[in-house]
Amino acid sequence: MLITTTSIVEGRPVQEYLGVVNAQSIIGANIFKDIFAGLRDVFGGRSKTYEGVLEQAKEDAMRELVERAQALGANGILGVDLDFETVGAGGSMLMVIATGTAVRL
Q1: Is the separation of the CB atoms in 84 and 55 below 8 Å?
Q2: CA of 33: how far to CAs of 38, 58, 67, 96, in Å?
Q3: CATH number of the domain bearing residue 55
Q4: I need a labelling partner for 101 at 20 to 30 A (CA). Which of 18, 27, 32, 62 fits?
Q5: CB half-sphere exposure, 94, CA atoms < 13 A
Q6: Pick from 6, 34, 22, 15: which is nearest to 73 by CA?
Q7: What is the pLDDT along the chain (105 residues), one digit of tens a residue?
Q8: Could you tell me the residue range of the domain that residue 74 belongs to?
Q9: DSSP string over 43-103
Q10: Torsions phi, psi for 21 (to 5 deg)
Q11: What is the spatial distance between Cα 10 and Cα 82, in angstroms, rounded to a whole number?
Q12: CA 83 to CA 49: how far, in whole Å?
């Protein structure tokens, strides 16, 4: 599956547009991660804990995006966009939304 943020793939014309596909992943951050991230905020530096959670949510959303495109018979997804949001009480959950256009190249 070819996945790109661009609307075209040089040298590979789109044979058929199959439609917009999207997927989302929501991951809760547990209390221990919150405590360690809070310490990182106090002492400075990057929060590897939250970076790992965000990466996992992104991978989950992308995997689901590919599955949905494959179900339509696609071999590519163009114009992929990733949005990151916090949801839940006090922003306790992390959400990633992946959107793109399923195509047959």
Answers
A1: no
A2: 8, 18, 30, 18
A3: 3.30.110.70
A4: 27
A5: 20
A6: 15
A7: 999 999 999 999 999 999 999 999 988 765 445 545 554 554 555 666 667 778 888 999 999 999 999 999 999 999 999 998 877 776 677 889 999 999 999
A8: 2-104
A9: H-S--HHHHHHHHHHHHHHHHHHHHHHHHTT-SEEEEEEEEEEEESGGG-EEEEEEEEEEE
A10: -120, 150
A11: 22
A12: 19
Tokens standing for residue 59:
């991978």
Query: Whose structure tokens read 């339509």?
Result: 72
State if pTM tops 0.85: no
- The residue written with tokens 């040298």 in the block is 11
Q: Please give the tally of structural domains in the chain.
A: 1
Q: How far apart are CA 103 and CA 13, in angstroms?
A: 10
Report the distance separating Cα 68 and Cα 91, nearest Å.
28
- The type of residue at 14 is V
